[in-house]
Every structure is written in structure tokens, then in C-alpha cells.
Amino acid sequence: MTALAKHFGQHVALEGLSMTIEPGEFVALLGPSGCGKSTTLRLLAGFETPDHGEIYLGDQRLSSAQMQVPPEQRRMGMVFQSYALWPHLSVAGNVDYPLRVQKVASSERRRRVEAVLARVDMTAMAGRYPRELSGGQRQRVALARCLVSQPAVILLDEPLANLDRHLRASMEDYFRDFHRETGTTMVYVTHDQDEAMALADRVAVMQAGRLKQFATPETLYHQPVDVDVARFIGQGSIVHLTRAAAGEWLTGSEAQRLSDQGRARGFVRPQHVVTGVEGGLPAQVERCIFRGERHVLSLRLADGQSLTAYSAAAQPSGSRTGVAIERLWGLEAGEREVKGADARASAG
Amino acid sequence: MAATVMMRGLPRLGPALLFVPALLICLLPVGQLLIEALLATLAAPAEWRDSPLFEVLTSTTTWRATGHSLYTTALGTLISVVLGMLFAFALALTDLRGRRALVICFMLPMMIPPQVTALAWLQLFGPASTLLITLGIAPALGAPQPLYSAEGIALLLGIQHAPMVFLALRASLAELPAELVEAARLSGAAPRTVWRTVILPLCAPGLIAGTAIAAIAALGNFGIPAMLGIPVGYYTLPTLIYQQLAGFGTGVLDRVASLALLMTALVGVGIWLQHHLLARRDYRLGGQGARALTLATGHWRWPLTLMLWAILALILVAPLMALISTSLVPAFGMGLDWQHLSLAAYQEMFTRQAVTARAFTNSLWLAGSAAVVLVALTLPLAWQLARRRSRVLGVCAALFDVPFALPGVVLAIACIMVFSRPLPIIEYSLYGTLGIIFIAYLSRFLVVALKPLHSAFVQLDPGLEEAARLAGAGPMRRLWDILLPLVAPAAMAGGLLVFLSAVNELTVSALLWSAGNETLGVLIFNLDDGGDSVLASAVAVVTVAMVVALMGALELMARRLPKGVLPWQQ
């Protein structure tokens, strides 16, 4: 898709979004609610029409400002947040429906429904109705229903949002295995960064209708593009630097040049902060929280900036220590930060 | 490629074109009325003193009838408010036993057609009352019938429309979270202070809305003032229109159109007043999911329950008993005893009288086909209305309300104005046929069919339809395979509600009927007018039985209906 834009009245839902998804890739659209990720998914499915931009599936143009391929002809499958199982049809009836509409011969239909129900371990439930199923079972029926017509792309709209934590973890594994075995292209919308990082080949972080960064989970974690992405992914500290270093690693003495006067920003992971260093940056321990395998320290530097660090041993709050930073990732200024000023931002 | 791709403009418009016939049915008559009446005045401004509007507005008959209308409406609405408040507070806020039965019985007067209510009450009082004679407490012959008076009209209007106040108020009370009262008590307010400072102010919107609905309904009511006022020459605006049209024919169409315009203006003032009063009173908090407020009645429980049942016995059971007993005597004015119990009236109704059989056939046929046509028409309308958040469609939805909100006589006059001339091209006049009544019913009851379907579609997860789209199903396929089975109960309920309203309808058909085209409502009115109270009562009893049976049928499917479809349910 290129330069997609969608406006709802005055409200800009999506602006200048361009991305290319490879066949067989598992992509997560990640962002806070209202960032435009669901709108993107609905544009892909064809439920919304873009104001600008185009969507291609392979060589076929699906959407542009002039023309639309209707959803029923797009070869896309979707798992809805509410699952959207038809309550008046049985499990088999739900899965069979796309084939029935596409006028597939009935012997072929029976074979494919059986195969796909076996694929999601729901063969025993074929005669049940959606109201008789648990959340996880409904989820699997919804998946089977979109698999049965062998779509080119499967769209998933926060599919785990309505499940409890335990079931979430097992469905996460299920999706991962499923993707590995079928090799279907999947686009997965979520607001949970852990879920996105755990599942996707690549994650698209979105904010306020714009694509911020589109990269592998590792790159996102270690090399967030700007302050907003760093803050959203979390688990680290954003610090002010004396010199701009956007998009590069700083190590050694370069990494120690923090100053609340600096306009440039950097991102420090707690595992890269070493405490108890003689001659290091002077810092005071503000809080020390026990997290089982380690202690998490909140440190305050002399110039007022804060840092998060790990420590094997507890350190009483109020105690002083010397800090060294092993490596630091330079950030571009986030949009909201252009105005500057507000210091002491810390995430994680 | 071209076959697989829809151009952008078309899919947006396609199904929405269905709104055109619906709007035509709803707005053509009423629009025509307004335009013609205004044009008649404006076309010749020099002779404005000769215009029918001026003539009507300067006539003392008009203002006497307006005065009567306002007096009976005001007094009737007061009675509605008192009764409605009593039942709403007692049934929505307390822990009384048997509240469901009380609600259904209290709602019944609204579902019984006004001409039947009036007939039943007439059988309850007066020297010829079968019930009073049987009980030996009838007044002496020649004593006046107390209901033939302004106050009698007001009393019946009050009872007929009390359920409207009740419903609106109960809706307000149901949203009142118990925490608000508990917080007030903890702040140090005594129970009486809580009522004055928390409960009453918070249910004011419901009370205002209910009062407005009841007042507008009372103003437009035809059956009650026709049965109780016309015999003694007491005319309200609707009965004045009826009397002029019945007496002078369509020659006075300009004059009655002006009267209809005057009524429309009065309704407009009422609606404006309601909006003005409600404007700064939107207290909805939304999405709290809190416990509903329930007050313990303690040792007042039984006295209160008894009082409510006693009131119902008086306003519902007694008139119905009077109606039934009149229908069972061999001749009007006799008492009821086991030797003389007679089903002659019922026999006559179904076998001997051609006019009764015809009226039954006409009404059942009209109501049945109106129900079927309206459900078929509103099904796609409701679907589009729920799916597209378009301003234009929102305005259309509001316009569908107009023929239902306006008094029935206004709609009837409007239909006469449009259809008294032969239709263009086919040169066929609907006036004087059942066709004109049928079109008036379509116009009036469209919204009755639309509302349940609309709320069913709104409560349906849009994903269900989108999933079917992705499965490859086109619009008609989706409507048939997915949506129709899911909204079928609501469609059924809408159809039954249309049938229930249309089969007993009097106001519109009273002005549009002609010999051979009587409806049930007209039949009861004419029989009573001609002095045949026994046969009229028998027909009325059958009518009430039909209402109760239909309500029972709807009650049976209540569990499968979207919330708010059945008027007598929460």
C-alpha cells in the first residue's frame, strides 16, 4: 500500500501510510487505541475506502481513490475481535458458509470443512452452536471459517482481546505454530507490545495515523527510531545528551555525556546501566523494587535526569552510587518533543 | 476487471434508493396539506380576508372547539400524570410482589382502542347500565349519563394515556443508580430530602417527555370525544373536523384543511415546549452498569399492592365487565341473569349482519396487508439506517415519525387532499375505496414497523455482516442468509404491532371510510351512534379479545426480541 490516507470528517485517521508486506509474512500493527491500526485493517479488507493512496495485492490493484474492489472479491479472511460467528448456524454451518456462497460442489465442500475443522481441532464440535462454545473454541472456529476459502491474506483484529490471560498465552502459541505450518500472510492488529513482539516477523508501530517504524521485533527493541516509539516499547530510560546521535550507538566515554541542557535524546536499556562504578556519574537511588530474579533501581542523576538499572543486590533508597552506561542508542526527536522543554522523561 | 470493480458512487447510493418510496408515502400527504393550505392564503394576498384560513381562524366555532380541546387535554394529561407517576414509582422503585402482572394490566388501556374504552365506560354508568341494573344500583331512568361531559372525556383521555407517562418515567427511573441515593444518605440527607433533591430532579426528563407525549396524544384523540362529546354537542378540534366533513362533504375541504393546520400548529407548540424544557436536563451518565435503585416498602407492601390492584379494578376491570355484561343481554336496558343470558349479539355479528362481517374482513385484510407490506419495506430501510451513519438518512428517519406523531385526523385530511383527485396517468381515484385507507395506514404505521427492526439491526454486531462479505456474499445474499434469520423475531414483532394498531384504528378510517368500506373502529362507532349498544359491545368484546391474544403472542416471543421493542416491557 502506498500513501494511504483516511479522514473521518475533520479527524485524520490515517496519513501518508506506506508499507509493503511480503508474501507469507506475519505482520503486527501495533499502537495505542485510536492510532489508526484498525482503520488500516478495515481499508485492507475493503470496509473503508481510502481518501488517497492505493492498495495492491500482488499485481492486483484493490483500492484507489477512484475504484474499489468490494470486500467479497478480495480473497481476504478476517478474524474479528468479537469473532462474529453467525449465531443461527452451527460450527460446521459457519465454516461451510463461504464455500456455499462461492458455489463450491457439495462433496468438495464437505471435504474442505472437515479438513479445516480437523486443522483447528474442532471436529468433535462440528454440530454445536456458537453460544455453546468457550471463548478459545469460538476463536478457532472463526479462524477455520476464514481458512476454509484459502484466502491470500488473513486479517486479525485484536483476536486475543476478549480472552483471559491464561488462554491468551496458549492462543499466542497456537497462532505462531499455525502461521509457521500454513505460511499464510497474516496482518495482526494489537495494542499489546508483548503480543506483537512475540508473534510477528515484523512490527509496524503506529501513532496518530502515521507509521512510526516498521521493523523486526529485535530492531524495535534495541533501536527504536524516536522518542515516541521508545516510550511505547518501554523498558528503558530516555535521557538528554550533549550531542546529537540519531540512529547510532554510543559507547565508552561518548555514552556518559548526559545533560539536562541537551536537546538530543538517547535511549538506555537497564541492562546497559552498571551501578557501583568508582568515578562514574554520581546518582542517588530513589526506589528499589524487588522483582524476583533481580532488583530494579530508579536512579536520579545529579542534573535531575532519571535512569533505570538492574542490580543483583538490594540498595537502600537514598544511598549514593556511581553509574556507567555501557551503550546508548541515539534517538530522533519525536514529533511531540519538537517543542523541547519537558525533561526527565523516563519509560519502563 | 470492470465486472469485478464497482464504481465508487453506486454502492453508496444503491440500497438507499429504497428511502424514496418510503419518504413519498410518509411525506406526500402531509406535505401536500401544508403547501396547499398555505398557498391558498398566499396566492391571493389581496383577498386574504376571503381565504379559508382566515375564515376558520375568525370563526367562534373554531375557538370554542380549540378551548374544549385544550381543557380536556389539560385535565386528561393531569390525570395521566398522577396515575402514571403513582404506578411508575410503585413498580419501578419498590420491591412489591407481582409487578410484572401489574405492569401488563396497567398497559392494557393504552392497547385497547379509544372507541372501545369509551363504549365500555358508557356501559358502566348511566341508567341503562346492564352492570348497575344487575347489581341493583342503577340510577333512575332519565338520569343523565355523567360521562357525556368535558370531565368525562378528560377522565377517559387520562386513563387511556397514563401508560405513556408511566413508560417514559420508568425509563428514567431504571437508569437511576442506587449509589446516588446512598451517597445522598451518607451526606446526611433524610429520605424525604433525598426524594426532593435527588430522585425527583433526576426523573424530571422522563416526566416531561411522558407528559408531552400524553398531551399530544390526548389532543389528537378522536374516539373518546366522538363517543362522549358528539351526542351532547361538545366538540373538540378532531370531532369538529369530522362533523364538518361528514356534514358538508369534500366541499369544505379547504376549511377542514385549515383546522388541521391549526391542530398541527398546536402539536408543534407542544413539541417545542417539550424540547425547551428538556434542553438543559440531559442527566444521562451512561455505561455505569450500576445496581438499580430498589426501595424496601416494609409493612407498606401489602396496603400499596392492594391499592394498585384496586385502581386497576376500577379503571380496567369494571368497564370491561360492564362491556361484557352488556354484550350478553337480549336487549339494552335489561339486567343480567342466568335465565336470560344471551349470545344472540355474537351470533348476529358473525352470521346475520352483512356489515359486521364486512367490517371484520376489511379491518383484518387492511391490517394484515399493511403489516406485511411495511415489514417488507422497512427491513431494508432499517438495515441501511443502522449501517450507514449518514446525516441525510438520519433526517429521513426523523421524517418517518411525522405521520405517526401528527393527529390522525390531520393525516386523514391530508390523504383526502392528495387522493380525492384521480391519480395521474391511470385516471383512477382512490377516494372512496379501501385503497386510500390502506395508504394512510402505510404512512401512519411505517415507523411502528421500523423501530423494532432498527433496534435489532443496531444491536447486531456489524462483524457478522462483514464476515459474510469477506466470505463472498453480496448484499441480497447477506440480507437473506445472515441478517434475516437474526432479525426475524423483531420483524415479526413489528408486523404484529402494526397489525395491533391498524386493526382497531378509528381516527383515520372515520374520515376515509365509505359505504362498503367500513372498518372495525368505524363499525363500533356507528353501531353505538345508532343506539345498538348490545351489538356494539359484542364487537368491542371480540376486539379486546383480539388485542389480548396479540399481546400474548408478543409476550411469548419477548425473550427473543431486542430490548425496548415491546412497549409494555423494560
Account of the 3D structure:
The complex is a heterodimer of chains A (348) and B (570). Chain A has helices spanning 37-45, 91-101, 106-119, 135-147, 165-182, 193-199, 217-222, 227-233, and strands spanning 2-8, 11-17, 26-30, 52-57, 60-63, 67-68, 76-79, 153-157, 185-190, 202-207, 210-215, 236-241, 249-251, 264-268, 273-275, 281-290, 295-301, 306-311, 320-325, 327-331, 346-347. Chain A is α+β, with helices and mostly antiparallel strands. In chain A, the strands form 4 sheets. A 6-stranded mixed sheet of chain A has the order 7-8-9-3-10-11, sandwiched between helices. In chain A, strand 4 and strand 5 form a beta hairpin. In chain A, helix 2 (91-101) packs across helix 3 (106-119). The longest helix of chain A has 18 residues, at 165-182. The model of chain B is unreliable at 1-11 (pLDDT under 50). Chain B is built from 25 helices and 1 strand. Helix content of chain B is 71%, strand content 0%. Chain B has 570 residues and is mostly helical. At the A-B interface, strand 6, strand 7 and helix 2 of A face strand 1, helix 21 and helix 22 of B. Strand 6 of chain A pairs antiparallel with strand 1 of chain B. Chain B: It comes from Kushneria pakistanensis. Chain B: It is a multi-pass membrane protein. Chain B: InterPro entries: MetI-like, MetI-like_sf. Chain B: Residues 66-274, 360-552 form the ABC transmembrane type-1 domain. Chain B: Keywords: Cell inner membrane, Cell membrane, Membrane, Transmembrane, Transmembrane helix, Transport.
β content of chain A, as a range? Answer: 25-35%
The total count of helices of chain B amounts to: 25
CATH class of the largest domain in chain A: Alpha Beta
Biggest sheet record of chain B: none
The number of distinct β-strands of chain B equals 1
In DSSP terms (H or I, runs of 4 or more residues), the helix count of chain A works out at: 8
N/C terminus separation of chain A: 33 Å
Shape descriptor of chain B: globular
Please compute the radius of gyration of chain A using only Cα atoms.
24 Å
- pLDDT average of chain A, as an integer? 82
Oligomer: heterodimer
Largest sheet of chain A: 6 strands, mixed
Mean pLDDT of chain B: 83
Distance between the termini of chain B: 52 Å
The SSE string of chain A, one letter per element, is EEEHEEEEHHHEHEHEEHHEEEEEEEEEE
Could you list the spans of chain A in which at least 5 consecutive residues all have pLDDT below 50?
A: 335-348
Content of β-strand of chain B: under 5%
User: What CATH architecture of the largest domain in chain A do you see?
Assistant: 3-Layer(aba) Sandwich
Largest interface: A-B, 33 and 23 residues
In CATH, the topology of the largest domain in chain A is named Rossmann fold
Helix content of chain B: over 70%
